[in-house]
Design brief:
single chain, 84 residues, alpha+beta, two-stranded antiparallel ribbon, 2 helices, 2 strands, RNaseH_sf, Integrase catalytic domain-containing protein
Amino acid sequence: MENNGIHVIAFEDDASRKILSIGEFNNSTTDNALEVLKVAELEAMEVNGLIQAINTDRGSQFYPNKKDKNGEADSVFRDYLESK
């Protein structure tokens, strides 16, 4: 079955198994992941409160894949989570 290049990003509540937010995109980017996460955060407030933890794969939209000469890497997704 061909997926026509569509990427799905979803956030699921582990306790209830409810899909809090889902999106279909041409690319799995950090911006797209954050867009779906922000909707999930609002939905979580309606269901059971703040999101306490997020489990992801190690995709580049969640984890930086390039480090500078000091071994440091910028992660927009991580920075967003740490700002909460």
